[in-house]
Amino acid sequence: MQSMKKILASMALMLITASGYAQDFLGKWVTEAGDAQVEIYKAGDKVNGKIVWLQKGPETKDIHNTDEKLRSRKLMGVNILSGLTKKKDKWEGGKIYNPKNGKNYKCSIWLEGKELKVRGYIGFLYETQTWKRATK
Question: What is the SS3 string spanning the chain?
Answer without folding.
Answer: CHHHHHHHHHHHHHHHHHHHHHCCCCEEEECCCCCEEEEEEEECCEEEEEEEEECCCCCCECCCCCCHHHCCCECCCCEEEEEEEEECCEEEEEEEEECCCCEEEEEEEEEECCEEEEEEEECCEEEEEEEEECCC
